[in-house]
Amino acid sequence: MPEAEAFARAGIAALVYDKRTVGYSQLHRDFSLLADDARAGMETLRARSDIDPAKVGLWGFSEGGWVAPLAATEAPDTAFLITIGGPGVTPLRAQTWNLGNQLRHGHVSGSIRDAVTVPAAHLLDGAGLFPAADYDPVPVLEHVRPAVLALWGEYDTQVPPRESAQIFRQALARAGNRHVTIRFVPGAGHNGHRTKDGFDKLGGPVVDGKRLGALGPGYADVMTSWVRAVAAGQPPASSTASPPRQEFDSRAATTGAWYESIALQYAVLALFLVAFAGYPVIAGVRRITGHRGRPAVSRPARWLAATGAAAVAGTLTFMTSIFALGGKGVTPFLFGRPLPWIVLQALALAVVAATAATGLSWWRARHEVNGTTRIRLTFLLAAGTVFVPWALYWRLLLP
């Protein structure tokens, strides 16, 4: 709304509408559907007698940086395109970069940051729990023909501004678009509104009990003067301002290595489920039916099953919660590590120790262990052995 009012004060009509909820949710994304809505909005404007139908364009913020270019390619008569905080990377890559910023801002350090951006992100993607995770905006940008004004806040912490600007510039150049203006709003965050560091909001209206932040310095003026030039038939020639400093690059959730295969990850989790969770279940059944295992083997085996199940289930739950809550509430407890992560790392070390103890106990009692006990221990030791590289991949055994 603040941007729409700024356009209106400058004599530029602006249509604001609510994002749809039907066919769109936290677990389902359809950018084409949202693009259809944007094009319907353009047609609504064109139908008005007080609007010049040849001068109707699009403005998109954040996710709108994926949607508005798509709508522009599907509507050849789009007069112009403005984006603020438009991601040049995939949704998953943008989110992991955002989470990395959130954790750094909260002074969280160590291996947990890599665990979030690589194995956790990759598994959530493979499980289908991150909708439109791999949507690539580049093919669409390569077909955008109208004049483009692409803006990013100097302190954007949700979308990598330097990377995104470079991707926009290169993709739009391949489209043959010679009217691409790339600028960065000083003292502004992801939404172009004022901030000190990208994590707070300064001034502006209060919406739903939260301060929105005043428009960044020059933000509205840059947009309105640019629209006037385009409407007058004088779109500026392509130019790119110097990008702000970006502390770290975004990264893909997978390198394509064989051990990152989702099928293999599921197979490993299935082994853990059968071995760690199944061991105490079968032990309980055997106890009820009057069977007794050898204490020298059963004690470390029970410890292995318990710590293994807790480490795996705890890791998956904690990582999922970080994504679900956007990294909020994750605070350092000791040496920059959150308390849940410290507990999980301690459990991982306990699994390694219990695996060694179980193997040693079994070797000493190898002549007395047979039948179903041998099978159960084989699965359990296999799971404990596989747990070591799995824990390394999930950074549990790294500082």
From TrEMBL:
Domain named Peptidase S9 prolyl oligopeptidase catalytic: residues: 36-195
Regions crossing the membrane: 263-282, 303-327, 339-363, 375-394
Top-rank taxon, per record: Bacteria
Protein keywords: Hydrolase, Membrane, Transmembrane, Transmembrane helix
Cited Pfam families: Peptidase_S9
InterPro entries associated with the record: AB_hydrolase_Est10, AB_hydrolase_fold, Peptidase_S9_cat
GO MF, one example: hydrolase activity
Keyword Membrane among record annotations: yes
UniProt-listed PANTHER family: ESTERASE ESTD
Name of the featured protein: Alpha/beta hydrolase
Organism annotation: Streptomyces blastmyceticus
